[in-house]
Amino acid sequence: MPRSAPHPQQPPPSAPHHQGSPPSAPHHQGPPLSAPHPQGPPPSAPRPQGPPPSAPHPQNSQPQRPHPQSPHPSAPGVPPPAAPPATDATGHVRLPPGGPVGMPSVPPAQTAPDPTTTTLAVLLIGPAGAGKTSVAKYWADRRRVPTAHISLDDVREWVRSGFADPQSGWNDHSEAQYRLARRTCGFAARNFLANGISCILDDAVFPDRPVVGLGGWKRHVGPGLLPVVLLPGLDIVLERNAERSGNRRLTDEEVARIHGRMAGWYGSGLPIIDNSQLDVPATARVLDEVLSRAIASPPNW
To answer: What is the mean pLDDT of residues 49-53?
Structure first.
């Protein structure tokens, strides 16, 4: 027998690796296959048909995906792509926050400012029956820029059960509801203006009541609020009050008392419109003229 024949104790060549078997070959009890035979090299073993020993186990053969926040393995040091911005699934529009209303800017032109195209915050003051609500609605309806009308009486009447009616007497309860309504109106006005919508508010502000006076409106809306007083004659407010109903109608004595207190606005520096002989459209035109002057030279209040 030739000396180059395989040793009788030499293990046979390993069979092809099965697909489900572990990647590494089992440990042999004898000498390794690569050790040379004492009398000469043994015949080379056939190449396994399965995966090479360095291949991962079939159960772990899928490459691990990189973490979405980690750099791509093929581009070390490259920052991950920015995540898409969060969107509101409800479709709500994110509004800019409302802040105190600043003074309206004076246009650079030499002509008088046009109040019909300027974003404004107007406070229309006057006694019951002065026509504040009617003029405010008419003025807001016919502007060439978006304009809202905010009536303090309407907001006060949002309270249904437990409404503190001032006709029953002014007390801590009615004053608390009034101040709450004024803060609500101021919040609404700031948010309207922050979104480019003018607003006109109306309220019976007394010049001799600092608690419910201009100071509160200035604090809640801002120094850019333009106050204008509507003050017709006593006979006019009595006539208009007689046409009202519900808690909006006051006694003649109460109307006369309120009208007398409103006379304190004369000499205050605020613009005053006597609309005794003016209808609503004419009063709205005069209001535009007054606001044009107020934009050019804001009142000191």
So the answer is: 51
